[in-house]
Amino acid sequence: MGWVQKRRDHGGVIFLDLRDRSGVVQVVLSPDTGGLPFQRANSVRAEFVLAVRGQVRRRPPGTENPQMATGEVEVATSELEILNTARALPFHPGDAAGVDEALRLRYRYLDLRRQESWHIFTMRHRAANIIRDFLSKKGFLEMETPMLTRSTPEGARDYLVPSRVHPGEFFALPQSPQLFKQILMIAGFERYFQFARCFRDEDLRADRQPEFTQLDLEMSFVDEHDIQQLTEELLAALFQELLDVELTLPFPHLTYQEAMGTYGSDRPDLRFGLEMVDVSSILADSKCRVFAGTIKKGGVVKGIRVPGAAGFSRKILDELTSMAVEWGAHGLAWFILEDKGVRSPLVKLMEPEEIDALITKMEGKSGDLLLFVADQRQVAEEVLGKLRLELAGRLDLIDNKKYTFIWITDFPLLEYDENEQRLEAVHHPFTSPLNEDLPLLESQPERVRARAYDIVLNGVELGGGSIRIHRRDLQERIFGVIGLEPQEAQEKFGFFLEALDYGAPPHGGIAFGFDRLLMLMLDLETIRDVIPFPKTQRATCLLTSAPAPVIPKQLRELHIQCLPAKIKQD
Amino acid sequence: MGWVQKRRDHGGVIFLDLRDRSGVVQVVLSPDTGGLPFQRANSVRAEFVLAVRGQVRRRPPGTENPQMATGEVEVATSELEILNTARALPFHPGDAAGVDEALRLRYRYLDLRRQESWHIFTMRHRAANIIRDFLSKKGFLEMETPMLTRSTPEGARDYLVPSRVHPGEFFALPQSPQLFKQILMIAGFERYFQFARCFRDEDLRADRQPEFTQLDLEMSFVDEHDIQQLTEELLAALFQELLDVELTLPFPHLTYQEAMGTYGSDRPDLRFGLEMVDVSSILADSKCRVFAGTIKKGGVVKGIRVPGAAGFSRKILDELTSMAVEWGAHGLAWFILEDKGVRSPLVKLMEPEEIDALITKMEGKSGDLLLFVADQRQVAEEVLGKLRLELAGRLDLIDNKKYTFIWITDFPLLEYDENEQRLEAVHHPFTSPLNEDLPLLESQPERVRARAYDIVLNGVELGGGSIRIHRRDLQERIFGVIGLEPQEAQEKFGFFLEALDYGAPPHGGIAFGFDRLLMLMLDLETIRDVIPFPKTQRATCLLTSAPAPVIPKQLRELHIQCLPAKIKQD
């Protein structure tokens, strides 16, 4: 039984490619087969559903198809039943690749009939099983946490669910099971994991979904090293079993500061070099005012050596400069190193010894291009970080077969939020500060480092975690530093503060974007490919047309009403 | 590392029972241990979290504890660190059993520290793994379906989620993944399963939760027998591996009519007998008017033989009669069979031959009690069904160690809903009718049987499923019969009707209440015991106090406002 993939008529004989999830087989009906089956086969179109009975036989010599797993045989059909018909298709599953994504999402069931979809969701299933097996063997329990929970407006925006039983009150869908997994540690479970559905009502820039699946885990009586080691072993098992790829353990570590200083990003892609070098010390007294002036004002000059890019045209160099400016730099200084000397608009403005020192510091060789940005540290690093990625693309430096993992550690605990005019947790307010930085918490809060770690694969943040605060006094101090009044803290997190009072063990954990991990492992473009029923950037399901209006009775029962529409945005 | 379960001081020596999830060990500190560890141990109270280092040694002869797995050893402690303190506890985890459930739910992390909780959630974890292994080996893919989906107000009440991006529109949380799993079959996946979170905003009578977990599966190209066989093998594997209990396959079958006729229930408990017998044919011309009159008006007389209940006092018989009346019967006729003859208020009103025929039909023996209800068939069967359960309890007929499964089949497809004044689907409107009953669909719709099946364990409905409709024309006919205008059907289910147009295979499935299955397997009283963070009957989480009010900005962003409160119910 299966779907008609293709029908061909050849010399009065009907050939059907019949497909099920296991593959395709050729079904043959000749006019002398007998009336009814042949008649029915004659009415069959693409994606009809058939039940067929017949003799499997070797194909006649010369008609074998070596491209096909079943290319040496065919089914000489004696019975054929049409289980269901199919209308003319908006697109054929086999040709879905080129079709507009909106159309594919509207007819997702046709899109999912592609061979590739079958592969993707088989891999997703197997990946989850491998992870479950690994964690089960390590003594983790998979436990479910509530979807209908409490709104704690920290971080992203919550999806709300009005309560019918409690007028004027709302549940929130979880942004992550953070507090519940910490409560499970306080409850003594020691090792928990979950494939948790998480919800964030954010504007969906980039490749985000309003609901996504997170592999979430937490352990008691551990430090950073334990979590990281477990994570590495987990990923090694997954890559080995799913892709037959052997990862090299342990993964390298960079502190946040090192990552920013060398790659201009807290999720650096280490599949290629182009590291940044700080040349401020050489240029502090440069004749060239752009450099010296910036450094005097507390800024830096940082550069990248681009091997083999001395041949870049003026046009390319202008493009790179425009990009740098667009990203926030004042300009981009370039030096082309050739056998016959150095070319740069700045040669005239600088001492030859200065240029020599610069080239030596950058380890420049003939054929290289040197690029520099002079600016405040953050701007210089971010701009060169983006340039670095741009150059890797242009020079095709990235080996797509490589999986390069790295841990980023020692993130700042807090950052100043200009909009809210207050300090905010970089990760979340339950992250433990580094013990040695505790004395700075009130005096220089932005210098306090967190016991947080992100894991980055090929320049994509795959997951992140931290050692949590397990003592009430410290948790209250952190709430205070981020501007939560004691009463507010009590209202929002009182139950959690109380839980810390009853024997909370030291604990920590990590969470991975499971969709994103699969996307990277399967080398796909978007996480929509690994989700059976994804939503669009406007948070719409094109298949079911959700969200949709509801009947007034439903709203009345929930004690809410819609506000009069202001501006129609659709 | 672990929690202090108990502390005893004995002759200056401190004994601590230190607990982690693996068990308890005795930690000993004598004053000569050295200052700091002993001092610290002195300040320790129940549920403090400690790190301890020391020598594991055999306990002194005579002090062993044979009740304890580690009762022969103890830890002579040289180092002790207090990782966290604990306030005086609202209740001790070890004594939680007798504590008010509201208090236990508020401090759920203490309640979960019970040894039994650890057992329950280990079993839950293992059960899920056994099921996943079994289904994976059978070629099923575990696939995720959306939580933010479309409201289709059929069946229970939806939880709604206002959309921020689409003012005035709402998502609904799924009552089950019904349509998505059918779409996955249309997409060609053939075998799907999921542990799916489901949501129903109902008044929580009995043992229900607003969110619960369903083991949901669906197959293509199958009939009832295939689904039932797979289910039986799955349950057999689960009971074998989790409980070491061997189930006898195949499970017996009863049609809905047989179940109602013999047990007065569509989820009969077959761990005991007390089957109903129809004696209408004997009593049609009875002198006793209650019997004859009822039968003449289209009613029936049905009875139960209760072996060994001839000794029931008049008081008990009066109680049973009151119950029968409360459940809707006009009365309860009883006959006590003794060696010396028959006792009954009705003896005087009936011919001796009639009574003899009755006893013969009921296979009555001396020592039995015969009970009869004369009424319309439905009333008589329901009342005797309830009496049957009541009698089994009173006579202690139920073997709690037994697992008795049964399939109930051939449910009616439709039933008349008095409130809505229209026909409604008994299961859901996607259930296929029996082919042979199709001609009755418009003329005698209530006589049409469904290709639906429930699985019942010990009188509890464990799961249910059906073969689905896979042809658009039939689906539209069913929508018509339940009073959905074509336009309304199009608005609500248009996307699904369209999907049926593009090669939908024959398919069917089943879904189990996973929480309820575990509750029964672990012999627990309520499903709250198998859910880490359950809600109360009023759909409240006592731990987090969800639901809760939110700030006005959150509602404005969602384009809704609360209606003014009418009556405060709390």
UniProtKB/TrEMBL annotation, chains A, B:
<dbReference type="Pfam" id="PF00152">
    <property type="entry name" value="tRNA-synt_2"/>
</dbReference>
<feature type="site" description="Important for tRNA non-discrimination">
    <location>
        <position position="10"/>
    </location>
</feature>
<dbReference type="InterPro" id="IPR047089">
    <property type="entry name" value="Asp-tRNA-ligase_1_N"/>
</dbReference>
<comment type="similarity">
    <text>Belongs to the class-II aminoacyl-tRNA synthetase family. Type 1 subfamily.</text>
</comment>
<dbReference type="GO" id="GO:0005524">
    <property type="term" value="F:ATP binding"/>
</dbReference>
<protein>
    <recommendedName>
        <fullName>Aspartate--tRNA(Asp/Asn) ligase</fullName>
        <ecNumber>6.1.1.23</ecNumber>
    </recommendedName>
</protein>
<dbReference type="GO" id="GO:0004815">
    <property type="term" value="F:aspartate-tRNA ligase activity"/>
</dbReference>
<feature type="binding site">
    <location>
        <position position="461"/>
    </location>
    <ligand>
        <name>ATP</name>
    </ligand>
</feature>
<dbReference type="GO" id="GO:0016740">
    <property type="term" value="F:transferase activity"/>
</dbReference>
<dbReference type="InterPro" id="IPR002312">
    <property type="entry name" value="Asp/Asn-tRNA-synth_IIb"/>
</dbReference>
<dbReference type="GO" id="GO:0005737">
    <property type="term" value="C:cytoplasm"/>
</dbReference>
<feature type="binding site">
    <location>
        <position position="200"/>
    </location>
    <ligand>
        <name>L-aspartate</name>
    </ligand>
</feature>
<dbReference type="InterPro" id="IPR047090">
    <property type="entry name" value="AspRS_core"/>
</dbReference>
<feature type="binding site">
    <location>
        <position position="209"/>
    </location>
    <ligand>
        <name>ATP</name>
    </ligand>
</feature>
<dbReference type="Pfam" id="PF02938">
    <property type="entry name" value="GAD"/>
</dbReference>
<comment type="function">
    <text>Aspartyl-tRNA synthetase with relaxed tRNA specificity since it is able to aspartylate not only its cognate tRNA(Asp) but also tRNA(Asn). Reaction proceeds in two steps: L-aspartate is first activated by ATP to form Asp-AMP and then transferred to the acceptor end of tRNA(Asp/Asn).</text>
</comment>
<keyword id="KW-0030">Aminoacyl-tRNA synthetase</keyword>
<keyword id="KW-0067">ATP-binding</keyword>
<dbReference type="GO" id="GO:0003676">
    <property type="term" value="F:nucleic acid binding"/>
</dbReference>
<dbReference type="InterPro" id="IPR004364">
    <property type="entry name" value="Aa-tRNA-synt_II"/>
</dbReference>
<keyword id="KW-0963">Cytoplasm</keyword>
<keyword id="KW-0436">Ligase</keyword>
<comment type="subunit">
    <text>Homodimer.</text>
</comment>
<feature type="binding site">
    <location>
        <position position="427"/>
    </location>
    <ligand>
        <name>L-aspartate</name>
    </ligand>
</feature>
<keyword id="KW-0547">Nucleotide-binding</keyword>
<dbReference type="InterPro" id="IPR006195">
    <property type="entry name" value="aa-tRNA-synth_II"/>
</dbReference>
<feature type="binding site">
    <location>
        <position position="154"/>
    </location>
    <ligand>
        <name>L-aspartate</name>
    </ligand>
</feature>
<dbReference type="InterPro" id="IPR045864">
    <property type="entry name" value="aa-tRNA-synth_II/BPL/LPL"/>
</dbReference>
<dbReference type="InterPro" id="IPR004115">
    <property type="entry name" value="GAD-like_sf"/>
</dbReference>
<feature type="region of interest" description="Aspartate">
    <location>
        <begin position="178"/>
        <end position="181"/>
    </location>
</feature>
<dbReference type="GO" id="GO:0050560">
    <property type="term" value="F:aspartate-tRNA(Asn) ligase activity"/>
</dbReference>
<dbReference type="GO" id="GO:0006422">
    <property type="term" value="P:aspartyl-tRNA aminoacylation"/>
</dbReference>
<feature type="binding site">
    <location>
        <begin position="513"/>
        <end position="516"/>
    </location>
    <ligand>
        <name>ATP</name>
    </ligand>
</feature>
<feature type="site" description="Important for tRNA non-discrimination">
    <location>
        <position position="62"/>
    </location>
</feature>
<feature type="binding site">
    <location>
        <position position="468"/>
    </location>
    <ligand>
        <name>L-aspartate</name>
    </ligand>
</feature>
<feature type="domain" description="Aminoacyl-transfer RNA synthetases class-II family profile">
    <location>
        <begin position="121"/>
        <end position="532"/>
    </location>
</feature>
<dbReference type="InterPro" id="IPR012340">
    <property type="entry name" value="NA-bd_OB-fold"/>
</dbReference>
<dbReference type="GO" id="GO:0140096">
    <property type="term" value="F:catalytic activity, acting on a protein"/>
</dbReference>
<feature type="binding site">
    <location>
        <begin position="200"/>
        <end position="202"/>
    </location>
    <ligand>
        <name>ATP</name>
    </ligand>
</feature>
<dbReference type="InterPro" id="IPR004365">
    <property type="entry name" value="NA-bd_OB_tRNA"/>
</dbReference>
<keyword id="KW-0648">Protein biosynthesis</keyword>
<dbReference type="InterPro" id="IPR004524">
    <property type="entry name" value="Asp-tRNA-ligase_1"/>
</dbReference>
